[in-house]
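INFO batch 0412 | record 1 of 1 | parsing
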Amino acid sequence: MRADVFLVEAGHAATRSQAQRLIASGVQWRLTPLAPWKKVVKNGDEIPAGAELQLLDAAEARYISRGGLKLEGALAATGLKVAGLRCLDVGQSTGGFTDCLLQAGAAQVIGVDVGHGQLHERLRADARVVCVEGLNARAMTADNLLDACEEVLSERWEEEPEDNETQPQAPYAWMRNGGLIDEEYDDSHDAREQDIEDFKAQRAAKARAREEGTLATERKRRPEFADVDIRPAFDFVTGDVSFISLTLVLPAVTRLLKPHGQLLMLVKPQFELQPGQVGKGGIVRDKALFAEVEQRIRACLEELGLTVKAWLDSPIEGGDGNHEFFVHAQQAAEPAAVDLPLPEQPAAPKRVSRTVLREQRNERVIDESESDGMPGPARQKQRKRNA
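INFO prediction complete | emitting tokens
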């Protein structure tokens, strides 16, 4: 079996990507206690079934993902304690931050992510975790977070469940079992043909609505989640978001912090700068730009009424090699800016048809009339393009 697959199957790693990082840190195996250890050189090396495995550096396996190591280091550097706290994890993804918070003693973690199906099953099954998917943190409010959490913990029931006992009795139903009509037969309860057709049409319409997701339903909290607290007010907020500036996310998440609540967010400079400031491969190589990012994040938090307590390096680099940071801030005794409108989201770009693109390209070709006054060779070339 491939080494990276073996690590996952044997429970040493949660994902193959984590297994590959463990292999890079050092993994060896042997078949018997007296056999010499064999080092795994590459991810595709074969490890026989039943082999004993030894991790030379198990740090990568401590959490579901490397994000847990980042947050662990930041918590240690700031001295923040999350034991017994209700926490919000913004950009939950596979759950590295959530895993770290739980291992540090957090009472509950509500995680929010715009994606779906990313959270590791071990965390999804943890009663202390509420996983909210498909919610953009930039547009998150107390109301829509509360509603999304309730949806996760509930099940849907049809407001008017089907009752087969009300199905109209078809005319001449007595004939189904070979019955015979006689003078004593009472047909006063037999439905009319139209009643039956109407009933069938209603059933068909209901089935279509069920398939399309438009059927009226009633939401009921599952009994096993009856006591889960989903109030959108948190003692601690953390997060790791990508492809968006924190300045667009912070206005939404900070208003969910309780008075004096703590915020510890990962800062990725490559998403805080303009494209021209980011080098090849998405790496920020100009260290002078880090000060610009810090000033911008600090100003945003202060404008929102929070006090910045610390700006610190992430204990480990990002997966792409970028230098990352953490910002630690504290909510005021009386949260400010809670009534201000959230920053507007950019409109989705309209799809441009191929026909329009072709016409736009043609418009860039200089018309023959525009070549008047050009030197002869240039004019000849233009004529050929228009031909």
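INFO post-check: The first helix runs from residue 3 to 9.
INFO record closed
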